[in-house]
Amino acid sequence: MKKRTVAALSMMGVACIMFAVPYFNGMGCNYEMTLNAGSAHYEGVCRWGVLHMVETDTQTGSRWVVSARQLSFMNQIIYLVHTRHQLNTGDKQSSLNTYNQQQRGFTVFNYSWRAVSGNEIVIFQTSPHYEVLKAKVDGYIDSWDSLFDNKKTYMGNHR
Question: If 0-12 CB within 10 Å is exposed, 13-18 middle and 19+ buried, where does residue 56 land?
Answer without folding.
Answer: buried
